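Exercise: predict the structure of this protein bound to iron/sulfur cluster.
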Amino acid sequence: MRCAIPLRGGDGPLASAISVGGRRIGNRFAIHPMEGWDGDPDGRPTDLTRRRWRRFGASGAKLIWGGEAVAVRRDGRANPNQLFVNPEADTAAGLADLRRQVLEGHASVGGVADDLVIGLQLTHSGRFARPDDHGPRPMIAHGHPLLARKFGLAPDHPLLTDDELAAIGDDFINAAVLAQRAGFDFVDVKCCHGYLLHELLAAHTRPGRYGGSFENRTRLFRDIVAGVRVACPDLMIGVRLSATDLIPFEPADPGGTGRPMEYAGSYRYGFGVDEGDPRRADLAEPLRLLTLLESLGIPLVNITLGSPYYCPHVQRPAAYPPSDGYLPPEDPLAGVILHLRTVRTLKAAHPGLVIVGSGYSYLQEYLPHVAEAEVDAGHVDLVGLGRMVLSYPDLPHHVLTGRPLEHGRLCRTFSDCTTAPRHGLVSGCYPLDPAYKQRPEAVELKVIKKKRRVAATEAGSR
Ligand SMILES: Cc1cc2nc3c(=O)[nH]c(=O)nc-3n(C[C@H](O)[C@H](O)[C@H](O)COP(=O)(O)O)c2cc1C
Ligand code: SF4
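Solution:
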């Protein structure tokens, strides 16, 4: 379907600059962090990683939010191919190389560097750590009965101790030092998608200095920010935040439609969730967190929702689920609208923050129109692109230069870029990116998807 309403493109709101922390961002497109599961065993980038970052730069977007999640230490990786800070490898050199790829890609479409802002996303995967080929190695901040059930974790799985959490905080600070050395403009202290710092925000039931009260649940985050400030006074800090967690979902039957897991009583395991009805958001604490960020002088926030592990339909609305997901329980547009509405509420309450929105890829041909309208109305400052940048990285460049959209390259939310890594394959847009279409993994992926379809049909006919 084509949209008949003309875009304003290079003369419109998406082409206007915005300032943050004394830096100018030249337009209103941001590229979200997008991991490729393609680092080498020492946590360094490979050719595939470099290609992706180069394409981020060639998108024409003027804010590169983090590139991809880089683990602050070996055991904090979510997969064995994630980039990580490795004291035995020259991590800063690898990161500097990636930043250079962005700059070169950007120059290749005539972009100048002085209004291009590039950050690095820092993470510890916590509950979703899977640092080697021996399966998950969850490092959890609080007991979560539903996630324990969903992922087969023993009820008495030990919590990270306060000392262990403090040591991880030091690793974040060390990683920020390396990021600054590699030339990045800011670091994202990642608080989203169920990973450690996000999980801590929900640690209502954890005893001790990192659990219970809002002050305790934000303590490690605040300590990291304070440490980065001391170690790198000139480095800007941003935060990618899952503003709403929601109760975990599961398929009704294998390959079936998603439904919230059953839970009775007050739900004390989420952040930004209504404790009485955890299928709904409650933005009271996320708003309080944004107030905290402002008071800490953090100017830049990227709002996302949920987690790819337990409510993927909210985190990245899609027509087709990944292999570890479920059929959408609602029209995926409802997920997009939840993203838009959440950001509108947060931006209205915190006009001084520069806010990036997520979840736009499902809009497909309508993405530029909705992006233009949201920015024009002041509902969001920058529109972030996730999956769309894997299939069609030059979409921002085309919109801003008034070129017609190339419809055959629009992300159609097939979820292959998630299904592939769930089976140990590198991630990329296998259906639409010619470089991935031709890779041997594309054949493997087809076989995996076919087997899953057969299994789901058999389960459905039983
Ligand atoms: C293959 C893949 C890799 C991703 N890697 C990251 C990541 O490293 N860090 C992060 O914060 N989000 C990551 N995300 C989430 C995206 O940044 C984004 O929030 C999500 O895809 C929704 O935006 P979209 O609708 O534009 O795709 C990833 C998503 C996908 C599909
Ligand atoms: S595989 Fe390609 S088309 Fe499918 S969701 Fe990922 S980027 Fe979009």
